[in-house]
Design goal:
- The protein is an all-alpha fold.
- The chain has two domains: 1-56, Homeodomain-like (Arc Repressor Mutant, subunit A, Orthogonal Bundle); 62-207, Orthogonal Bundle (Tetracycline Repressor, domain 2).
- Helices cover 66% and strands 0% of the residues.
- The longest helix is centred in the middle third of the chain and has 26 residues, at 58-83.
- It is elongated, with a radius of gyration of 19 Å.
């Protein structure tokens, strides 16, 4: 029986894949979501065939670049937040880190949206962690009790959409995060109208990391 498919990737192949993904993030950040794979190859100092050998199409490359960003920038923050003993502080940290990533990697996110690479499978770990932290904060009495996990997803979508009207290095989104967090405090909260069913396939949710 052949073991060809069971062999681990060679070290140089792993290094090349990492260089390509880092180059993709840089090129998209500099030139926008329509950057070519040829430009990525040039930045990574590899041939176009090497790029296609690791990532057979644009969707695969963009998805891998986005997942690399999430793993590097968000996963440690979410892990610390979930392990902490102050769920509201963890929720704030998770939301801030998510919005920082969206602001910094907006062109990668736009490319992922355009190519179909930004799927529920990619966003689920982030939204799941935020929803878990929100539920814990509610149990601790530091978040209004009438919020649902659907509300949290929509709030993240609204905050993400705010970023598209700002310059890439503008952190004014923190103003709107502060406003939303104040609105989520249990003190003085007014009763909320009925919530509509959540539709994660809508365009606004596709902007989430």
């Amino acid at each position: 029986m052949s073991t060809e498919t069971e062999r681990p990737p060679r070290a140089d192949a792993v290094r090349n894949a990492g260089r390509i993904l880092d180059a993709a993030r840089e090129v998209f950040a500099e030139t926008g979501p329509d950057a070519s794979l040829e430009a990525v190859a040039k930045r990574a100092e590899v041939g176009a065939r090497t790029v296609y050998r690791h990532f057979p199409d644009r969707e695969a490359l963009v998805r891998a670049a986005l997942e690399r960003s999430i793993t590097a920038a968000l996963a440690p923050v979410l892990e610390r937040a979930l392990a902490g003993d102050d769920p509201r502080a963890g929720l704030v940290a998770a939301m801030e880190a998510t919005l920082e990533l969206v602001s910094r990697e907006r062109h990668v996110l736009a490319a992922a949206t355009n190519s179909g690479a930004l799927t529920a499978e990619v966003t689920a770990p982030v939204l799941g962690a935020v929803a878990e932290l929100a539920a814990r904060a509610q149990a601790a009495g530091t978040l209004r009790p009438d919020l649902t996990s659907d509300d949290i997803g929509r709030i993240m979508g609204m905050l993400t959409n705010v970023l598209w009207g700002m310059d890439q290095n503008d952190d004014s989104w923190r103003r709107y995060l502060g406003l939303m967090l104040d609105a989520c405090k249990p003190e003085g909260a007014s009763p909320l109208p009925h919530a509509a069913p959540y539709r994660p396939e809508t365009q606004s949710d596709k902007c989430l990391p």
